Amino acid sequence: MTKITRLVIDGFKSFGKFTELEFGSGFNTVLGPNGSGKSNILDALCFVLGKSSSKSLRAEKSANLIYNGGKTKQPSKIAEVSIYFDNKSKIFPLPEEEIKITRLVRHDGLSKYKINGKTKTRQEMLELLSSAKIDPDGYNIILQGDIIRMIEMSSIERRQVIEEIAGISIYEEKKQQALNELTKVDQKIGEAEIVLKERETYLKELKKDRDHALKYKELTDSLKKNKASYAKKRFDSKNEDLNKLMQKNSEFKDKLNKINEGIKNLREQINIKKEEIKKINEEIESKGEVEQVKLQKHVESLKVEIATAKTKINSSQKEIEKIEHRKSQNAKSLEEVEQKIKEFEAQKKSFEETKTNQQKELEQLEKTIKEFKIKHGIETSNQIEQEIDKIDRESEELQKSTHSLREEHQNQLREKDKNEFQLQTIEQRIEKVLELEKEHKNELDLLKKMKNEFKKTVLELNELLNQDSLKARELGQKRDSLMIKREELSKMELKHANVKESIHANIAVKKILENKNTLGEVYGTVSELGSVSSKYSLALEIAAGHKIHSVVVEDDKTAAKCIKYLKENKFGVSTFLPLNKIKTFPSTHEAIKHAEEKGVHGFATNLVNYDNKFKNVFSYVFGNTLVVDNIDVSRKLGIGSVRTVTLDGDLTEPSGAMIGGYRHKNFGSFKEHEMEDKINKNRNEVDSLEREIKSVEEWRKESDEKITRLREIKAGLEGDIIKTEKSLHLDSGDLIASQQYKEELEEQLKKNNSSLAELDSKLNDLTEKVVQLKIKRQELRNKATELRKPTILAQLNAFDEKRKELSESVIKMDAELRNIEMQSNEVGYKERENVLGSINGLDKEKKNFESEMDVLSGEIKEKEKELGQKEEDQKEFYAEYKSLFDKRNKSQDFINSCESKVLVQEEKSRNEELQINTVSIEEARMKAEIAGIEVEISQYPGVELDLEKSEEEFKKSIASQERSLAGIGNVNMRALEIYEITEKEYTGLVVKKESLKVEKEEVLNLMNEIEGSKKDLFMNSLNVINENFKRIFLDLSSKGDAFLEVENPEKLFEEGIRIKVKLAGEKFLDIRSLSGGEKTMTALAFLFAIQEHEPASFYVLDEVDAALDKHNSQLLANLIRKYCHKAQYIVISHNDAVISEADILYGVSMKKDVGISQVVSLAMEEAREKIQAIKAEEVAVSN
What we know:
By secondary structure, the chain is α/β, with parallel strands linked by helices. The protein is built from 26 helices and 26 strands. Helices cover about 70% and strands about 10% of the residues.
C-alpha cells in the first residue's frame, strides 16, 4: 500500500502562493472557519487525481481554478498542484521511492500532467494510479454533498453501487460482448443462409452447365475419334485417288502429244495443197479470170465462216451442258441448305411451343395465386405482398441481367480461350519459322516468294473471273439490246422499203428511174425530192394528189426523151416536170391573209424540205394550199375562198368542192424526217452495239486465255508450295504467322481480360443487389408470415417457387430461341441466298449462250443461202475451166477436209488440254486436301482410331454428332472448373454455417455461465457488505439494528437494494423515514461497509459529520481512529470530537484583503502536552 506524503499547491483557487502540506500516515484533520479554503485542499487532491469536470471541483470552467489575485494581488498565470506518494513498497511500477504526480492548468483551460517532472497524458497518469489501485472516482473520496446523494440514492442505484464494488461490470461487459458477438453470429448465420441459398441456386444452374459441358465433352471426344478415323480413311482414299489421277494425267498427256503430232502433219499437208491451189489460181488469173478467183475466195471464206460458226455453236452447247451440271450441283446444295433451314425452323417451333406452354402455365399460376390469396384473406397484407411482388420483379430483372451477363461472360471466356490458343499456336509457328530460317533461309525465302506469287495469281484470277462474269452479263445485255434494235430497224426499213415500192409501183416511173443514167438528168419523183414531218405527212400527200408521183427532169428535152422511151417500149405514161419550163404558182392576197389565222399551220410549200432548185416544182404541186387543224377551221376561213387541207386529210377546193372522210395511212407519201432520223440513229446504234459485242467477245477470248494460263500457274504454284512445305515440315499457316498478328492477339487478350474484369464487377454488383433484395424479401415475408397460417404459407411458398422456376425457364427459352434465330440467319438463309444467286447467274449465262447460238444459227442460214447462190455462179465458170477447177476443187476439198480434221483435232486437243488442266488442278487440289487431311489428323494426337466403319457411316455419325452439338447451344467448358470451385465454396460455406451455429451455442452457454457467475459474485459481495454494514451500524449508533434487503430475489438485476433500519421498537424503517443525523450515520455505516469490503490506501472525507450531534460525532471519530492504522485518513471537520481524535491538525485561515488561504499544521500530541503544561501552570498559580 501507499500513502500521500505531501501535497504542494501553487496558484490553485485560494492558494495564491506556494503552499506545502505534509500528511501523516494516520488520522489527519483539516479545520478552519467557513470560507477559509479548507475544501480547496480536497479539490486540489481531486484536481491532481484527474477529475475531468471543473464543476465537480466547484468551478464553472477550468480557468476559474487559477488564483484570481483577490482585491490587491496579481492573478496567477498558472495553477499547479502536486501529490507525492510513498513508493517504498514499489506499488507503483517505477524505480523511485517517492512518486510525484503534477497537474497544471492555464487560463485557456488546457491541462498538462507530469509524472516525476516528465510530461505525460492523462491516460498514462490514470494507468499509473490504476496500477496502485487508486481510482479518482472511487468511494474512498467523499466530497461535500456525497453523503446527501448517498442518502437520497434510489434502490436501483444502490444495487448498481454494489455491482460495481463486486466487479459485476466485468461480467456485464463480458455479457455485452457476448450479446454483441451473438448478434454478429446471428447476422453472419443469416447472411450465410442467404448466400448459401443463392449459391445453391447458382450451383444448380452451374450443375446444368456442368452436365451440359460433360455431355458436350463426351460428344466432342466421340466426334474427335470419328473425325480422326474419318480423316485417316479419307487420307488413304485420297492417296489412292491421287495415284489414279496421276496415271490418268499421264495418259492424257500421251494422248495430247499424239493429237498435236497429227495436227502438225495435217497442217503440213494443208500447206502443200494450198501451194497447189495457189499455182492453179495463178494459172486461172493469167487466163483473165480474176473475177472468178474472187468468187472462189468468197466461197471459201463463206465455208470457213460457216464451219467456225458451227464450232462456236458446239462450244456454246458444251458450255450449256457444263452450266446444267453446275446447276444440278447447286440444286443439291440448295436442298441441303433448305433441309438445314427446316431443321432450324423445327427446333425454333418446338422451343416456341414450349415457351408458349410455359407462359400459359405461368399466367394460370399467377391467376391461381391471386385466387388463393383472396380465398384465404391474405389481401389484408396486400401492401406487403405488393412490395414482395415488386422485389420479385426487380429480382427477376436482375436475374435476367445476371443470366445475360453470365452468357456474355462465358462468350468472353470462350473468346479468350480461342485467342490464348491462337497466340500459343502462333508463338510456336513463329519460333518454328525462326528456327527454320537459320537452317533453310534460301528455301524459306523461295517459299515466301512462291506464296506471294500464288496470292497475287489468285487475286488476279479472281479479278479476271469477276470481270469475265460482269462481261458475260454485259454481253448478254448487249445481245438483247442488239436483237431489239435490229427488230426496230427491220420494221423501219420495211416501212421505208414500202414507201419506195409505192413510188416504183407505176411501171413507167420505175423504168424511167432505172434507166435515168442513159436518159439524161432525171432527178426523181416529187415524193423522193422532198421530206416532211410525220405530223404533216398525210395532209401534204393529199394536197399533192397525183402530182406526188411526177418525175422531175432537168429540161423539156430530157422530158421528151423520156416520153419517147416509154412509147417505144410501151411502158405506159408518166408526168414529167422540166425545171426550165415549170412555173411557180403566185400566192393570192386572200391566202396570205388566212395563213396567219388561228388553226392554220401555213402554206403547204413551206412545210416541205427540199433543194432550192426545186422550188418551182413544189410551188406548182401545192400552189396556195394551206394546212389547217381540221374541217372546222377550213369552214371558218371560208369554203371556196382558198384551197385547204386538214391534218387528217380532208381537202377543200377553191371551187367549193370538199373531199374527206376516213383515210387509211398509205405508204406513198413524202419521206418523213423522223423516220429517216430514227433509221439512221438505229443503224448507228446497231453498228455501235455490234462493235461493242465484237470488242467484248474479243476481250472474253483473251480473258479465257489468261484465265486458263493463270489456272495453270496457280495449280503449279500450289503443288510447289505443298511440296516445299512438306519438305520443310511446315504447315500451311506457319508462314502467315507474324509478330504483328501476335501483337493483335495480345491486344485482343487484354481487351478480353478487361471485359471479363468489368463483367465480374457487374456480376458481383448484381449478385450483391440480388442478395440485398432477398434479405429484404425475407424480412417482408417474415412480416407477412405473422398474418398467415403455416399451412397456407407453405402452399403460397410452393406456388412462389413454381412461379420462379417457370420464369427462369421462360428466360432460358428466350435465350435458346435467340441462339437458333442467329444460327438460322447466319448459316441457313445467307447460304441459301448465295446458292440462289449462283443459280440465277448460271441461268443468265445459259440464256446468253442460247441467245448467241440463235444468232449464230441465223448467220449460218444466211451464209449457207449466200453460199448456194455463189456456188451456182461458179457452175458456169467451171464448165470452161473444168479440169483446173476439178483439180483445185479436189485440193480445196482435201484442205477443207484437213481443216475440218484440224478443227476436230484442235477441239480434241483443247479438250485433252482442258482435261489435263482439270486433272492437274484436281491433282493439286487433292494434294492440298491430303495435306489438309494430314494437318487435320495432326490435330488429334493420341486419339484412338476406329477404321472398321465406312466413310458414309462416319459422315452420318459426324453429322449426327455435329447436329447434337449444334442443338446443345452455348457451352461453358469453364463450368467444369467453376462448378468444382463453387462446390468447394458451397461446402466451405456449409462448414462455416455449422461452425457459426457451434459458436452461437458456445456464446449462449457463456452467457448462461456469466449470468450464474454474476449472480453468485453479487450475492457473495452483498452478504459481506451486509455483515459489515450491520456491525459498523452498531458501532456508530450503539443501539438498534440495520441490514440490506433485496427487493426482488427472483429479478435480482432488475430491482434494487433497500436499507432497513430499526432504532427503537420492533419495526424496521426505510432510510427515508429517519432523521437527518440518523440518515447520515446510516449512510456512513454503508460507506464504511463498502470500504471494509474493498479497502483503499487513503480516504478523504469532506465534512461528512456536518449533520451529526456531539455524541454521534464522537462515535464517528472513534470509528475512524479504529481504522486509521489500516489506511491514511484526511478529514475536513468542524466537530470537536473529530478534531480531538486526529493525529495532525491543519488549520486554514484566509487573508481577506488578498484572498489567499494559509495553512498551519500542529501535531495533536504536542498540542496536548502544551495544554497540560498550561493547565499545570494555572493550578500552580491558583495555589
